[in-house]
Amino acid sequence: MKGLIIVLLFLFPVLAFSDVLDTIDNPSAFGMMMGGAIYTVYAGPQSIAYNPAGIATDNGGLFFSHVEHYLGIIRNDFLSATTNFGNLYFGGAFQTTRAIDTDYTQYRFYGSLAYRMDSLSVGGNVSAFYGTDIVNGFSVDLGSIFKLQNFKFAITLKNALANITWVSSTVQYYPVEIILGAGYENSSINLNAFGNMTSGEYGIGLQYFITKYFSLCAGYGGTFGQTGSFSIGTVINNYLGFDLFISYTFLNAMNFGQSLSPFTVSMSSNFGG
Amino acid sequence: MKKFIFFIFLAVPVLIYGFSLNLTANPVFLLKNYTVTITMTASPLFEPSDARLLLYDYSSNSTQTLYNPSVSSNEYIWNYTVTDYSDYRAIGMVITPEGTYLSNVATFTSNIPAASVESTIVYVPFISNYMPSVFSQITNIGSKMLTFTAFSSPSGLTISPDTGQISPDQYENVKITPSGVFLPGKSYTLDAIASTNDPRSGMSEYLLSRFLIGPDGLLVTPVHVSSTTVSVGSSVEFYFSIYHSDDLSISYVYVTWITPGRSQTFSLSASGNDFASILNITSAGTYTLSQIIVGYNYKGQILQMVLSPSINVNAINSSNSMNIELVNGTNEAIISVSSTSTPYVVVNDGPIVKTIQMVKTNQLWTGTYDYTNQPGIVNVNAEFPNAPSISQTFTKYEIHGMTNIYLSDNGWITIPSNAFPSGALVAVYTGTFSPQNTYVGYSTFNQISDSVSVSSNVTPAASFTYNLYFSSQLVNGLFGNVRVYALEGGKWTLSSILPNVGMEIATFSAMGGTYALGMTTQIQPGTSPSVLSFYANPSNAIGPRNIQFFLTVNKDCYYKIYIYDMRGRIVGSQSGSAIKIIGNLIYTLDTTSISNGMYVAVVGVGSSPNAFTQSKTISFVVSR
Known about the structure:
The complex is a heterodimer.
Chain A: H1 2-11, H2 29-33, E1 61-69, E2 74-85, E3 88-99, E4 104-116, E5 120-131, E6 134-148, E7 151-166, E8 171-173, E9 177-185, E10 189-196, E11 201-209, E12 214-223, E13 229-239, E14 242-251, E15 264-269
Antiparallel strand pairs in A: 1-2, 1-15, 2-3, 3-4, 4-5, 5-6, 6-7, 7-8, 7-9, 9-10, 10-11, 11-12, 12-13, 13-14, 14-15
Chain B: H1 2-11, E1 20-26, E2 35-43, E3 50-57, E4 62-66, E5 70-72, E6 75-81, E7 87-96, E8 99-109, E9 115-117, E10 120-127, E11 134-140, E12 146-153, E13 157-160, E14 163-166, E15 171-178, E16 188-196, E17 205-220, E18 224-225, E19 229-231, E20 235-244, E21 248-259, E22 262-267, E23 270-271, E24 274-280, E25 285-298, E26 301-307, E27 311-316, E28 321-326, E29 332-338, E30 344-349, E31 352-356, E32 359-361, E33 364-370, E34 376-384, E35 387-396, E36 404-407, E37 413-414, E38 451-455, E39 464-469, H2 472-475, E40 482-488, E41 491-494, E42 500-502, E43 505-510, E44 514-519, E45 531-537, E46 540-542, E47 546-553, E48 557-565, E49 570-578, E50 584-590, E51 597-606, E52 614-623
Parallel strand pairs in B: 10-17, 19-27, 22-49, 36-39, 46-52
Antiparallel strand pairs in B: 1-2, 2-6, 3-4, 3-7, 5-6, 7-8, 9-11, 11-15, 12-14, 12-16, 13-15, 16-17, 17-20, 18-20, 20-24, 21-22, 21-25, 23-24, 25-26, 25-27, 28-29, 29-33, 30-31, 30-34, 32-33, 34-35, 36-37, 38-44, 39-43, 40-41, 40-44, 42-43, 45-47, 47-50, 48-49, 48-51, 51-52
């Protein structure tokens, strides 16, 4: 009972903290073109950044993504890999976020584990943070995906137990983020949505399969009460041995003549999954 | 035992009638390792066989005897170097065949507080709101507690700390800051002096620092606002003065208010040394007078002084309201207040402060005030028992020239009748001009896109040069948009006359005809503004503090700034207009409400409020 109370204290300290962890949490082109709504998708190594239960798929291997946010001022690289022994999946990831006009870089390392049953997968990440102004940091992600015929549901607890020790010796604690996802998938479409109950972020994305190897995507995501961003993209499967994701995001396009989050490319290799 | 013997010497002096020995020590107070001179004067002169000095050291509790003085006439001199922090007593002894003679007791000490100060002379040739501080160090090089009291002579320097105690071998850093009123054009010499308990001769007072200030300079006095808590619908007057030396000229004065959701920049013109304008409160929230920018020309250089007064005015929604109506052709202002409670109405008209008697009709209270014929701002303030006050103002302008037109903040124009041929539209606020020489009338001017007509049906003999003065409030900082329209064939068309538009003034020459002066918010095609610089200060905010964002553009324009976190969420935004000066302060981000990490600021600039043709992005870091 005491253990349960302790866990609850760590999982639900939302009221005690001011803001969620401020890191890039939508690093892949596929995630961007789906409005961030790939929490119910078995997306392979890139799922580490979203829902760790999503790595439990044969589409494992190596994944790399590069994003240039805000007219290229902020650059984010995400490299991840997964493999499996039967129904048990292992993964690891490395993420860097840096500014080109400021001497500032953040690093995040992930270790992931997932287990897949017939219609249910569960997974978890352990993350460590380092950076220019970060001495160290730690967080845990827990996720699950449940399929019921063509419908999919996901619950992700993101950044549980998250804390960062800054170089100023300040230790900041962050609330766990409760993310709910839902989706519908058939041979033609893959429709997904998510809502972050803690931060107010949301997104909806539609993937339309033209062929088995080629699909088009469109998504809209943002934060409740703010102007969101609209994205489009394409997925090319098994292109020269890679899965290729290309997206373009119009962030706040109503106000700015130039897009702040332009072209994003992600690549995935299915060599080991 | 030695001490006892020494005191026996002191207590039982051997005195011989008619003969005396006088012993003195100089200096009485000295530092360790310094030399004291002990002089014994014999009277009358006699031939001693032996002269010696008995010296008792209190700290070592020892007595030593010094022999072989240098002899000069009837003086016997011993030089003794003090090697310890101690008190000393000395007694001279002369042994002659007739007997032994003892002198009086002389004392000296090295056990004292002693100060050491490094003085600084600071030359501040240019008086401004930012005067340099200097630090001066007082060190106790003695062996006892040093106390000091610092003061400014004459007054005008703030010294911190101004009193204190310093232990031996310790020091105190004293900060000295000019804090008096220093008017440009004059020269000042101020000394910061420390008075100590150092007993050494002539060593009790030390010059910490000398400030030589002036005579050049530019000084902005503190800003006054007519009220800091008002109802929505009020207008708040703000004013300050600028003093400068003769070798300096003011180019421009801008005041930026951060209003709810946007910023507003005023360009102020001088009335003598005084600068004033009015902020209209249109919605509830906090209005912050964030920045004053003074551009000036000094020794051939175009320079800029930026001040951040950070004065807040809180605007609160209220069911009460006030309206001022200026009666055409008179000096009468009708003040109407809608309120369920009795308003207390006071008018400030220059030096005049007058309480207005209000007459109630239903919920409307009405009173009148005859304003003076002096230029300036008239402030009308209504206070209520249980509601925030309402403050409104109007401005009176004075005509200074033959061909000047003035547009007031309130949408009135003023023109002397002899400035134009008959038929011109003119307005109130005649100032020192007599009413019979002034065509009285007015044209309301509510939106910046409106045109104000100044027309003539009399053909002048030669072209006139017309000066149009306008308020930056009305044009929202969009200089360069003054147009001249001509009435030809019953249709208004853009004239071939090109106005020469500067800050708050447009000049154009015209022959006879009917013309209109217009101001539009639309910037001409092909002249899109561009961002020359955009930066955050500080770009790495360590600790809870504000980050300010500064924008420099190549022409007057609109802007919108967004602050994003790494997850694309907007943590702050603001829109407004920026003007062609260096470093418009366009946004202040309070970092206390956001978490640590990296953020980006994106600014868009454009010729209209909602279409931005250029963007620039910078990153910054919040770290607590």
